[in-house]
Amino acid sequence: MTIPAVARVVEAHALVYRRTWRGSVISTFFSPVLYLVAMGIGLGSLVDQGSGQAGLGGLSYLAFLAPGLLVAAAMQTGAGDGSWPVMAGIKWTKTYHATLATPVGIRDLVVGHLGWVGLRLTFVSVVFVAIMAAFGAVASWAALAAVIPAVLTGLAFAAATTAYAAYLDSDTGLSTLFRFGIVPMFLFSGTFFPISQLPDWLEPLASIVPLWHGVELARSLALGIPTTWSPLVHIGYLVLWIIGGTLVAFRTFTRKLRQ
After folding, report:
1. Could you give the CA distance from residue 91 to residue 103 in angstroms, rounded to a whole number?
2. DSSP of 162-223, one letter per residue?
């Protein structure tokens, strides 16, 4: 693996995105606005009028929700970029086969793909924090630090789904992943309510999901509140997912592209 080869892969993704960015405008700019209006302000006004703030550590529901939605958006972006685009490059458009006809190797291809996803995640997350600030969900621009756990969470899911997509022979498995994996994690990993409110048997399961670790850390950095576990534990867990997913992706890409 060489840095110039990885940079070429990132550059190729950027050139493609320059012509296709309009398709991501809604998810990047309008989805955060709609979520914060509907859930943070709409539903949040009902939560704040009741006894909901007591269970949120005295935070308004909008303030509690916004960092969770930031990380959940990063998760969805990372998982999305690691799923059908990867299968397309292997199975349908064969762009990965063409790439390997150049001096770019499989490891360059995987790391370059994840590097591009990391750049996308950074941009999406910064935009989301700006929208959070516009809604008054965060008190200062120090909340930009929440971009770090959002990007780490997105990369954790991107690496895992990239490895999984390269392993599959049909995109049916991707639909199953999103229906029974990504959506439940989005709902039950601390984004909308603390996992302490889950049934006792489900709380430990929620705590092993990378999304929960990212949400906990982002909420702490954005709002200045303590995390349930040490921040280093949260960061280390997300980094392990990134490294593990990348190593598995090396193997699944080799299996599919060297047949």
Report:
1. 21
2. HHHHHH-SSTHHHHHHIIIIIHHHHHHSSSSS-GGGS-TTTHHHHHTSHHHHHHHHHHHHHH
Q: Buried (b) or exposed (e) across 208-226, using 16+ Cβ within 10 A?
A: ebbbbbbbbbbbbbbbeee
d(CA 198, CA 217): 19
Residue 224 CA to residue 217 CA, distance in Å, equals 10
Question: Residues with Cβ < 8 Å from 226, sequence gap 6 or more?
Answer: 220
Tell which residue, 154, 14, 152, 151, has the closest CA to residue 78. 154
174, 96 Cβ separation under 8 angstroms: no
Q: Which residue has the tokens 């989301």?
A: 128
pLDDT tens by residue, 147-158:
999 999 999 999
Helix (H, G, I), strand (E, B) or coil at 226: coil
Residue 2 three-state SS? coil
CB of 212 closer than 8 Å to CB of 241: no
Element (H, E) at 149: helix 147-167
Token pair 């990369």: residue: 155
- Domain ranges, ordered by start, for the chain: 3-257
Range 115-124 average pLDDT:
94
Residue 134 has pLDDT above 90, yes or no: no
Q: What is the pLDDT of residues 192-230, one digit of tens each?
A: 888 888 888 888 888 899 999 999 999 999 888 888 889
Tell me the pLDDT band of 31, cut-offs 50, 70 and 90: confident
Residue with the two structure tokens 């990965």: 96
Q: What is the token pair recorded at 107?
A: 């490891």
